Amino acid sequence: MQNKKIKVFIIAGEVSGDVLGARIMREMPDAEFVGIGGENMIAAGLGSLFPMSDLSVMGVIEVLAHARTLTRRINQTVDAIIAARPSVVLTIDSPGFARSVIKKLRHMPAGRKLIADGLRFHHVVAPQVWAWRAGRAKKYARTFDKLYAFFDFEVPYFTKYGLDTVAVGHPISDVVFGRHGARGGNSTEKIITLVPGSRMSEVKRLMPVFRDVAQQLIANGYAGYRFIIPTVETTADYVRRQTEKWSVKPELVPSDQRYDVYEKTYIAIVASGTVSAELAMLHIPTIVIYKMNPITTWLVRMVIRVKWVSLVNILLGRGVYPEFLGPAATTENVLDAVQQLTIPSVREKMISQLKMADDMWRRPDGAPAALIAESVRRVGGGQVKV
């Protein structure tokens, strides 16, 4: 019998997961990684099975439209896991795709044999059952062997059903709180940063709003303002083609330069998602917007159980960041919010509230990527026998 370093099949379905996946990989130089990821995980040494963008789909109608592609990718992923024979399948966000892959593995003879031989399923990012239906945690307890949540308040939802769950802190806090740049949202540069998201469906819906906001601001006397859009690999070409048609030309910068941009940002207007957490940690005055397919919007309204979608609003239990979702995501509403955020007293109040959340983002016992890596490494004692 020969000892071999641990093999991890890692899957990330969107940009934020790709960034965290790369950090986890760098924390485990002793491991062999195969799987699916984006530019960050590829730079860390992963040969992605297929483009990560194939998994960046959100919304009922959008998923149905891409059902054939997703089914093909599920089958391809299952076959790759069986061929790779890893010790751990580590999925990052995209819980729907992760559950579909694991469910199929559990129903295949080859998959059942891998599980009997010790294959374990670990998942990063607790599904937001507290926002939808708490009882849904039960199905995740049946799917995963271990769950890495970001916040303490999420843990009991899953441990209630016997799922080994640990809070590791928000991974973005490692980068944001470790930077030596300015924090506090007190930039004197009149930069408005626009972040349309990382999924093509959301970008297509939000870019017209961003265009109209930029053009009307300039027309209404904000002539000294500049607009910057950080772009991600999945949508950069589309954003570039669209902004070429704008009368107000924003500056486009790659995503890896976004923190330099954020630290100079006067006001940010962003898609709901991870970016709002980044900006909250940096204390940047921000407006959150989101548009979905009308049917998806209706379904969400029927089942959602929280007042807010932005993490900082949820953590603090108040509407620190203004949110305009669905039909409320109009040019007029955003322009009114921008005007409010040019008032010094309004800015100062928002920044003061953002600072109250600082200790909620981090854990004292280590960085998230390091905590996850150490837990994964313990599967099989850090080595796999073959």
TrEMBL record:
Q: What keywords does the record list, in alphabetical order?
A: Glycosyltransferase, Lipid A biosynthesis, Lipid biosynthesis, Lipid metabolism, Transferase
The reply to whether Lipid biosynthesis figures as a keyword in the UniProt entry is: yes
**What's the superkingdom here?**
Bacteria
Q: Name one GO biological process term.
A: lipid A biosynthetic process
What GO terms fall under cellular component here? membrane
Name of a matching Pfam family: LpxB
Q: What is its EC number?
A: 2.4.1.182
Q: Supply the name of the protein.
A: Lipid-A-disaccharide synthase
Reaction it catalyzes: a lipid X + a UDP-2-N,3-O-bis[(3R)-3-hydroxyacyl]-alpha-D-glucosamine = a lipid A disaccharide + UDP + H(+)
Family note = Belongs to the LpxB family.
Instruction: Say yes or no: keyword Glycosyltransferase present.
Output: yes
Could you state a single Gene Ontology molecular function term?
phospholipid binding
Q: What does this protein do?
A: Condensation of UDP-2,3-diacylglucosamine and 2,3-diacylglucosamine-1-phosphate to form lipid A disaccharide, a precursor of lipid A, a phosphorylated glycolipid that anchors the lipopolysaccharide to the outer membrane of the cell.
